[in-house]
Amino acid sequence: MRSPRMLVITLGVFAAFSGMLSGLDQSVISGALPGIRKHFIASGEWASMDDPKLATDISLISSLMPLGAMAGALIMTPLNFYFGRRNSIIISCLWYTLGSGLCAGSRSVGMLFAGRFILGIGIGIEGGCVGIYISECVPPEVRGNLVSVYQLMIAFGEIIGYAAGGVFFDVPSGSWRWMLGSSLLFSTILLVGMAFLPESPRWLASKGKYGRAWRVWKSLRDMADPKSLDEYLAMEVTVKHDVDQSANVKWHQRYLEVCRTPRNRRALVYATAMIFFGQMTGINAVMYNMSNLMAKMNFDDRESVLMSMVGGGALFLGTIPAVFTMDKFGRRVWAQNILMFIVGLALVGVGYLYTNNGVDYFNEHKATALGLFFSGLVLYMAFFGAYSCLTWVVPAESFSFNTRSQGMAICSVFLYLWSFIVTYNFEGMQKAMTYTGLTIGFFGGLAALGFFYQLFFMPETKDKTLEEIDELFLMPTSKLVALNTSNLLKPLRRRHRPEPVDNYNA
């Protein structure tokens, strides 16, 4: 008989395995782009490397996946409502399989567009479902850690994507097809594995299936601990209340409830602002264009694909500490990692300055330029790895039960919208601002704003049950800011507190 602890870990890790598909499909395009350019120039789709249509189409190939993910995030809510959390993840695997097959077998740029968009739909469905599924199944003391595993798997998938680029780069014909088709293996593994995991007990209870919900709950909790029974009873009461409150409300009408109810509106602003400041520092534009960024530092095509693994590896390693300590140190500690983005982006920007004065000047200062560039890239990617865990932890736990799917969907739409905006406009932005201006001025400036926003406006949800988090978001924003300010000033007050006078020895 499986122990509850073992099943919880298995459920969390395997559900988060879907993140590897997302990460692989985000990064593998970086290594595939050189081959795609050569193939479709040879086939006559593009006239030459200087063809303006090529630049536009390459931007679309990179950015259509987050655009498709926006559509997937909107589909995710009715899927979650009618089919459940687990089955929605299984459905996302089917979209992954179809999209990967289309990309690998593309005979035209239009087919490649369609494949990337369909892949995005799979990412949008899965990205919103996994966090909810894990949050509703696992105990609160490990919830943050296990939801963070999803981001760890995204980072691991990105390494695999870059590695696939290196492995298939020298395949004589159609290397890019092998790269883009590599996710078929992982979507099949996920599809089979999810079939053996239980459905969310909270979703089962919401459908009146209390017997099944109780059986699943017992398999996921140590019932010798009285808190497990108390948590189940609290969950059942909360779910019944939410179902009764929304008995005559359609699932799509709950989108209005997210914006209309002060408790949910605070959660929405908090979650979307945190995602905004992460995405608008350019992470996905960097991931999708990693080989282009390396080429700017005078690496050839093969070297650019291989060196991309440096950024992917830093992201993966930076994610590991957050996964194991998210529930120890809390969400606010890891959110302050955004401060180190500024340092990393500044170093990358200064490194790019050495490319502005010709090849001879760059070669003369090559060691300095590459040292600055790679130091900054590793810092930026590593600290973003930890921060990015919050992208999934925060929305998954912030909304009330009856609006959790809608809240997660809205957050996912904004995440992919900002990713699309930055990715699609990346080339145009760097031409207008230069690489240095873009990394230091635009991305670094937004990181600085994000640091101060989260310092004062971010609540702490560590060790709280989902029902206790409901109470936290009932707190007015002004009171939260006052509380955070008071906590920040505590060390200063202790330092300047006068020593007590010993009247007996005076």
Largest sheet: none
Q: State the end-to-end distance.
A: 71 Å
Q: How many separate domains?
A: 1
- Name the shape in a single word: globular
Oligomer: single chain
Q: CATH class, anyone?
A: Mainly Alpha
Low-confidence stretches: 501-506
The counted number of beta strands is 0
Percent of residues in helices = over 70%
Number of helices: 24
Instruction: Please report which band the strand proportion falls in: under 5%, 5-15%, 15-25%, 25-35%, 35-45% or over 45%.
Output: under 5%
Mean model confidence by pLDDT: 85
How are helices and strands ordered from N to C? HHHHHHHHHHHHHHHHHHHHHHHH
Radius of gyration: 24 Å
If classified by CATH, what would the architecture be? Up-down Bundle
GO molecular function: transmembrane transporter activity
GO cellular component, one term: membrane
Pfam families: Sugar_tr
Protein name: Major facilitator superfamily (MFS) profile domain-containing protein
Task: Please describe what this structure looks like.
The protein is an all-alpha fold and 506 residues long. The protein has one domain: MFS general substrate transporter like domains (Growth Hormone, Chain: A), CATH 1.20.1250. 81% of the residues lie in helices and 0% in strands. The chain has 24 helices and no strands. Helix 2 packs antiparallel against helix 5 and helix 5 runs antiparallel to helix 21. The radius of gyration is 24 Å and the shape is globular. The model is unreliable at 501-506 (pLDDT under 50).
